[in-house]
Amino acid sequence: MSRKFNRIVRLSEVDIPSFSNVDGLDAIQVESISDNTNTSENSIAVYIKGPLPSNKENLQLLTSTIVPGYCCIIVDNPRVAMNEFIAFIALKVGFTQDYTDSILPSSVKIGKNVVIEHNVEIGEGTIIEHNVVIHSGTRIGRNCLIRTHSSIGGGGYNYIKDNQYLVKQIDLGGVWLGDNVEIGSNTCVVRGLVDDTVIMNNVKVDNLVHIAHDCFIDEDAYIIAKSELSGYVKIGKRTRIAPGSCIKQRLTIGDDVIVGLGSIVLKNVSSGCTVFGSPARKIN
What we know:
The chain is mainly beta and 284 residues long. Helix content is 5%, strand content 33%.
């Protein structure tokens, strides 16, 4: 998945500090920004470490060193450069809109003091209770229940270091909720950095839960009160996360897993396992 611009951009026109000493930009054109785990053609992505993108077709990597076999744009701080690049595109070019703003279906019920931003889609039969905020880039499916004081699609707690200062990282992604999803009161579902945070059909999320950017929760999973999923966590089908549990970033929890009460999960969990404790250990 990628975030497309309103038009193709030649990098020589991108007037940002990180590109001031980079040569050869006039020959490079891109039309989107990608996450480096899910790249597309004619796109630009940040690469720091870890697995390399499998799709190299006209892909430009913002890196601090040359990566053999890839087209690289060498900058001092790739994350800072991407932040500057996103800000430039947003101001001068714009990004395409995922959802067409339209009148909500008559079967959607909206409580008092609800904020629904532009670029939002809400399916038939969904109920939005009082004081909910639904941010731009959010898709909510049919027959969902969004409980009081929840926030769907807000920005995450993502910071990058620029010299001695911390700089807020710009979020481009959105939130995608399937059908028959419940989001509890005072729960936050954070938008993805580039791709969407995804919650599939029939997932039930309790009160006071935090779901960070780019998480993926598969069908029929249960996320119970005061649990926290860090960025890029994947939760399998029918998995149950008990109250007060925390899951480290970029972990995968398989299908039919039980994560016990108050567990701190620091490693991937295979399907069918029950884990418990701090750190969480297999108990079946």
